[in-house]
Design a protein that fits this description.
single chain, 272 residues, five-stranded antiparallel beta sheet, 12 strands, 25% helix, globular, binds biotin
Length: 272
């Protein structure tokens, strides 16, 4: 079952300033592409691009992002943070915290953050984030924060090849009320707006909250790097910019760009 999404419903659900400027599309290639174009033409901080359906949704590392009309919440938020590009990772960390807070406040689901950009429920992916930035001199000019959340998808509607790893709010809530996409959007934007000053300041509180919500810290992991190499070790902590620190043998490796390929629980004795 789906719900209606329109500019009016989005505006009615806003809880703050973010989202006041909105471009809504029944169908679009990618809200991030539209957001980047808007940013180039002077789009203001807090502007959002929302689509009922994307035909060319992008994921990280050149992957495509699955969409189905009416089933997902898919939007991009334009930020103009006063941050140097090498601190851009903190934006993804903050977005993850904001999404987790919003989902936890609207449902009883104890969702977690799978570093760096997934929201998961019992290990299955519920949402993904893709931050694309443009820079000017030594600061970020615009950061287009794309968020996709599987809201109404049933098991059958999830492509077979993703089914074991993906889930939706409807699947997890199993017959209980699923929040409307506009309401979910309003809550997420409100949480991002609330956490934004800390994200762009020293971010200590954001990192502490992200650690508490992490599905990764304390686990043995295999992390795949952008060049295809892997690092195996124990996910220990986040650094000041949200990079993952992995203990391997006697050393600690800091991973700025990567993704978790394997995640293993560690029992209390430390054995895996
Ligand atoms: C990932 O998990 O790899 C990131 C997925 C990000 C998907 C969202 S949906 C809204 C926005 N528009 C896009 O094209 N991608 C992001």
């Amino acid at each position: 079952m789906t719900d209606d999404l329109s500019t009016e419903q989005i505006k009615d659900a806003l809880t703050g300033r973010f989202g006041e400027f909105v471009r809504f599309f029944e169908e679009i290639g990618s809200t991030n592409t539209e957001g980047l174009d808007w940013a180039l033409c002077g789009g203001p901080e807090g502007a959002i691009v929302v689509a009922d359906h994307q035909t060319g949704g992008r994921g990280r590392w050149g992957r495509s992002w699955f969409s189905a009309p009416g089933e997902l919440l898919q939007f991009s938020l334009l930020l103009r943070p006063n941050l140097s590009p090498n601190r851009a990772g903190i934006l993804t960390t903050g977005l993850g915290v904001a999404c987790a807070r919003a989902i936890r406040s609207l449902t009883d689901l104890a969702v977690q953050i799978k570093w760096p950009n997934d929201i998961v429920m019992d290990g299955r992916k519920l949402a993904g984030m893709l931050v694309e930035s443009t820079t000017m001199g030594s600061t970020i000019d615009a950061a287009v924060c794309g968020i996709g959340i599987n809201v109404h998808l049933s098991e059958d509607e999830i492509p077979e090849e993703l089914r074991a790893r993906a889930t939706s709010l409807a699947i997890e809530l199993d017959g209980r009320d699923v929040p409307d996409r506009a309401v979910l959007l309003g809550h997420i934007l409100g949480e991002i707006e609330a956490i934004y000053p800390a994200m762009t300041d020293d971010a200590t509180s954001v990192l502490a909250e992200a650690a508490g919500l992490s599905a990764v810290l304390g686990h043995d992991v295999v992390v795949r790097l952008a060049d295809g190499a892997t690092i195996e070790g124990r996910a220990e902590s986040f650094d000041d910019d949200g990079a993952l620190r992995v203990a391997r043998g006697g050393e600690v490796v800091t991973v700025h760009v990567g993704e978790i390929e394997q995640l293993r629980a560690v029992d209390e004795s430390g054995a895996t």
